[in-house]
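Tip: read the tokens left to right.
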């Protein structure tokens, strides 16, 4: 019985130490929002080399066309290619909504609805996309370890009839 009480006490202590306080969760969420805002600013400057700092060495990314990149160098190369796509010049990103869910003190999910604005041969366009990013805390900083993006399709007017 005494052993059982010690085990339960130990488990409660471990669980309490793993739980984040509300203030620490708020700080982490604010830090992730800032990292995302800095990423968008850097993207809009078309500085692919600087964007590399936002990813872990083992990051992976699947873009809205289904192309997969594994590793920081490949992800950065794919982003640079997207920035210089002739059919979508001067591409910029803005986020309509950003939702963050902290899973642990060191892992979080960011879901964003984004507008990709570009100019091309056919004029200007805005592509609506969603993406989910997995952030991890490394050396006290939040960085992206995985990205999944997809283009939103417009609702069909015939479906509503």
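Filled-in amino acids:
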């Amino acid at each position: 019985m005494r052993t059982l009480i010690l085990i339960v006490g130990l488990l409660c202590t471990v669980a309490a130490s793993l739980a984040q306080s509300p203030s620490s969760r708020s700080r982490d969420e604010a830090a992730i929002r800032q990292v995302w805002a800095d990423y968008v600013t850097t993207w809009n400057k078309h500085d692919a080399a600087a964007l590399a700092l936002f990813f872990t060495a083992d990051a992976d990314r699947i873009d809205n066309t289904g192309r997969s990149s594994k590793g920081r160098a490949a992800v950065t190369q794919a982003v640079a290619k997207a920035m210089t796509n002739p059919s979508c010049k001067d591409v910029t990103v803005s986020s309509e909504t950003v939702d963050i869910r902290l899973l642990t003190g060191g892992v979080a999910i960011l879901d964003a609805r984004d507008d990709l604005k570009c100019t091309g041969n056919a004029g200007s366009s805005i592509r609506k996309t969603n993406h989910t990013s997995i952030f991890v805390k490394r050396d006290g900083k939040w960085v992206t370890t995985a990205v999944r993006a997809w283009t939103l399709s417009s609702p069909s007017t015939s479906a509503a009839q």
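Residues 15 and 103 are 14 Å apart (CA to CA). The first helix runs from residue 2 to 18.
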